[in-house]
Amino acid sequence: MSKTPKSIRGMHDVLPDDTPAWQRLETALRETAAAYGYEEIRMPIVEQTALFARSIGEVTDIVEKEMYTFDDRNGDSLTLRPEGTAGCVRACLQHGIIHNQQRRLWYTGPMFRHERPQKGRYRQFHQFGVETFGVAGPELEIELIQMAASLWQRLGIEDVRLEINTLGQPAARARHREVLIEYLEGHADQLDEEARRRLHENPLRVLDSKNPEIQPILEAAPKLADYLDEESAADFAKTCELLDALGIPYRVNPRLVRGLDYYNKLVFEWVTESLGAQGTICAGGRYDGLVEQLGGRATPAAGFAIGIERLLSLADTPADMGRADVYVIVPEAGRQGAALRLADRLRRTLAGQRVQCNLDGGSLKAQFKRADRSGAGTAVIIEDEAGEQVSVKPLRGEGEQQRVAAADLDSLLAANQHA
Ligand code: ATP
Ligand code: MG
């Protein structure tokens, strides 16, 4: 029987070969957010279970069956966050930072959902999210869409398209809900079990079903669009107009309802064909009711979340950069002290250069092998115990080994660096 511990199913290590791609993406996300005037916020990973039930909605995939919920030692019910919006609003209210003011915030980190693991769907996954508070009107959603579009552009992602819809205001949704329930009741015998169960509690979510067998019934169901309130309809028309004016292509998808209850008015998703069923890489919309629902003063709000793993599988992978630029070779054990001293000096004087010093001895041949594997372009060989004389040997491309005074090494390597 194997005794070595394993990670939890659906929760993955990111190994050193893959972290450069993550870092590149995280840099792009951070810089894009900053370019749009967004500030970072960091929330705890664990929150009170009630927060998610109150904000995401009781009758949703997440709250019904996907949350990692447990009682802590005090008997409080806690949950590993399945998404970031609820915790973000909670933090903003707790610290009074969205009171009578506009706020643009972003966050990134792990989220947890107990789903069936498959490509693009994990139990620990990562999101980058942005939330804006205190700004009403469709221009904000356009700015959010622009921000996402500029990210795709920066990351060289072409195969992605925008789908939008409007969910209207709560009153319009309530009117539509009544006729929808009536319609679905009339076809209950043709629905699947899940749809029948949700029919009364959350009929809009029935429309979101992916079961091909019930699609014809859903296609013919009363459309929310026919029950929209005037303001939402006008805002949606404005959104479409602005997108047209900006040359951002989109498709109106009346079936787009999103899996969380807190949305109203505009909802949108960026989807790709290249990731199979897990094609949504970014999802968001307006959620004007949530702040008040969580006990704050009514505050317009909108945001989106990007699934980082899905985005990563679309973005091109950065070239392998190795892990060192300079490798210090120590031909004799007595020169190790000089080598460590010199290596540390180089790290200070050659800003941005990665310097690795050979440790644990080894033959010259073994050390050069390590130097090669480190990806370094240059080896520095310590020639005496005092570390006064060194040789510089290019490990890639042209160039001869040359012997120099250690004091001249820094400027020589700096010159190489800029050549
Ligand atoms: P889906 O319909 O794929 O289940 P969702 O509507 O549940 O998505 P959201 O709650 O809107 O997803 O989360 C925003 C984004 O986070 C998704 O568009 C997706 O890119 C990513 N995401 C959601 N769940 C997972 C998961 N289990 N594993 C990896 N990424 C995920
Ligand atoms: Mg889901």
Automatic annotation (TrEMBL):
<dbReference type="InterPro" id="IPR004516">
    <property type="entry name" value="HisRS/HisZ"/>
</dbReference>
<dbReference type="InterPro" id="IPR041715">
    <property type="entry name" value="HisRS-like_core"/>
</dbReference>
<dbReference type="InterPro" id="IPR004154">
    <property type="entry name" value="Anticodon-bd"/>
</dbReference>
<keyword id="KW-0436">Ligase</keyword>
<dbReference type="GO" id="GO:0005524">
    <property type="term" value="F:ATP binding"/>
</dbReference>
<dbReference type="InterPro" id="IPR045864">
    <property type="entry name" value="aa-tRNA-synth_II/BPL/LPL"/>
</dbReference>
<keyword id="KW-0648">Protein biosynthesis</keyword>
<feature type="binding site">
    <location>
        <begin position="83"/>
        <end position="85"/>
    </location>
    <ligand>
        <name>L-histidine</name>
    </ligand>
</feature>
<dbReference type="GO" id="GO:0005737">
    <property type="term" value="C:cytoplasm"/>
</dbReference>
<comment type="similarity">
    <text>Belongs to the class-II aminoacyl-tRNA synthetase family.</text>
</comment>
<comment type="subunit">
    <text>Homodimer.</text>
</comment>
<dbReference type="Pfam" id="PF13393">
    <property type="entry name" value="tRNA-synt_His"/>
</dbReference>
<keyword id="KW-0547">Nucleotide-binding</keyword>
<protein>
    <recommendedName>
        <fullName>Histidine--tRNA ligase</fullName>
        <ecNumber>6.1.1.21</ecNumber>
    </recommendedName>
</protein>
<dbReference type="GO" id="GO:0004821">
    <property type="term" value="F:histidine-tRNA ligase activity"/>
</dbReference>
<dbReference type="InterPro" id="IPR015807">
    <property type="entry name" value="His-tRNA-ligase"/>
</dbReference>
<feature type="binding site">
    <location>
        <position position="131"/>
    </location>
    <ligand>
        <name>L-histidine</name>
    </ligand>
</feature>
<dbReference type="InterPro" id="IPR006195">
    <property type="entry name" value="aa-tRNA-synth_II"/>
</dbReference>
<feature type="binding site">
    <location>
        <position position="258"/>
    </location>
    <ligand>
        <name>L-histidine</name>
    </ligand>
</feature>
<feature type="binding site">
    <location>
        <begin position="262"/>
        <end position="263"/>
    </location>
    <ligand>
        <name>L-histidine</name>
    </ligand>
</feature>
<dbReference type="Pfam" id="PF03129">
    <property type="entry name" value="HGTP_anticodon"/>
</dbReference>
<dbReference type="InterPro" id="IPR036621">
    <property type="entry name" value="Anticodon-bd_dom_sf"/>
</dbReference>
<keyword id="KW-0963">Cytoplasm</keyword>
<keyword id="KW-0067">ATP-binding</keyword>
<keyword id="KW-0030">Aminoacyl-tRNA synthetase</keyword>
<feature type="binding site">
    <location>
        <position position="127"/>
    </location>
    <ligand>
        <name>L-histidine</name>
    </ligand>
</feature>
<feature type="domain" description="Aminoacyl-transfer RNA synthetases class-II family profile">
    <location>
        <begin position="1"/>
        <end position="331"/>
    </location>
</feature>
<dbReference type="GO" id="GO:0006427">
    <property type="term" value="P:histidyl-tRNA aminoacylation"/>
</dbReference>
<feature type="binding site">
    <location>
        <position position="113"/>
    </location>
    <ligand>
        <name>L-histidine</name>
    </ligand>
</feature>
